[in-house]
Design goal:
The chain is 63% helix and 0% strand. The chain contains 15 helices and no strands. α4 runs parallel beside α6 and α10 runs parallel beside α12. The longest helix has 16 residues. It is elongated and about 80 Å long.
Length: 262
Amino acid sequence: SGVSALALRAAERLAGRGDDAHVDDVVLLSRLMVAHNAEPVLDLLERSDSRKLRRALIDVLLSAGGGLLPSVQTRLQSSQWYVTRNMIILHTRLGGGAEELRALADHPHAQVRVEVVRSLRAMSRDPAASDIVAKRLTDSAPEVAQAAITSLATMELSGPVVSALEAVASDETRGEDARRTAIQVLGGSRSDAAPDALLRLMQPHGLIEAPSTGALRDDAARALYGCPAPGARARFEEALHSTVRRVRKACERALGTDGQDG
């Protein structure tokens, strides 16, 4: 329509200058256009140098609905990392699936990988989502690995994902916070595999332990005690009556009974 053509020319001209003062005008014109033809607005999002405008255009484009999804997916492999990130946001909020994001979990730019991991929280019941996120637990960028742990806390965990979290929790080269968070995620899981993993994490692996190891054992005991998985109570009772004093004492501390039996 004439309105759309006018909106396109105005938006291209103002956004091309990267002039934030005109963002409101561009957004208004984009809203008029998107109801009839969202493609030019999507093109504008891809080209814009203005961060403020890009954020506003994402909200505008969401009003176009799921019919825009195929066009968004063709732009996921952009050469500009921030374009890819914005397309991931749109893909997720428009109802896209996890599999389309799998390749982007290996994107060279860490901020794209973080966005993938965060976005997959919205697909927590999709087994592919937790599988993709779990593979980022060993990401070279600490912020991506931490985001992966946080995202897994919202997801249904398969056996392999539980094993990946157990590996993080038992890795003494990892930071204590990351290991503790992995234990907490296991403690919140209903997966049948989670109690067994927590019980293994409580076992000592030598006569001499770092102070952090004892603290993490206590974390694992508390996590096992509060774990909602079906087999958690039996595993906690097993640990509570363990012949290994350090395991038994961690469970007593989790119950608040440490020292009461003399």
